[in-house]
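Troubleshooting: if your tokenizer reports a length mismatch, compare your output against this known-good record of 241 residues.
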Amino acid sequence: MNLITSTLNDFYHCCKIPVKAISYELNEIYKIGYNEEFETYFPIKDIYTLVHSGEEYLNHSIKVSEDICYKIVNISKPNKYRGFFVLGPISTCSSRKTNDSINYIPLHCFDYCAQILLSIATDKFNKTMSTKSFNPHIKKAIEYVHKHYDKSINITDLCEHLNLNKSYFCSTFKTTTGHTFCHFLNHFRIEKSKKLLLETDLNMLDIALSVGFNNQNYYCTMFKKFTGKTPLQYKVCNKHS
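Known-good structure output:
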């Protein structure tokens, strides 16, 4: 069972919301919870418009009628070309007048459902990364990040530490993990910063410095790239959730 299939299955069993993964070309990758009727609502034209809108990160609700909604989010937050998760349909009408087979969920709660899906995907990716049989050099690089993410790390110094050719390292890291080293490093730092945002009263600059960013603006830019929210928006949305 691949990562996307496993993620959607777990999400559906947790939330009982139909969900589908589609490619950037809008081809179906996997779905669960769908029936023929749900397919008739599927907002393929709206999704096409959003995908080609120029936005890199999609996190949008799509209304197909007065009380029936879908939601689309990137599978990979910084890379829309990896495809999208589409949640729904759900009904925003508590009396469910439209159709009793469509679950009622308040619209504001639909955002939390998307967060749950992305959390499951992130957790599975991280577990896969930690258990995969990596090239020993790549494994050492990942271990180095885990220990020293709060300090200055650049590829040149890391390659000298590992006694590796820089081009070889960059190519092998991308092939092995599916991401560039900079992507992996920034993503790891952003994940570490979330705990500080929610559990401490540190200001934004101190949080940025604590996880290895030496520039608050760059930290905020990376945070929005990976989460779709600014650090402050993330803190407000999740502080009491």
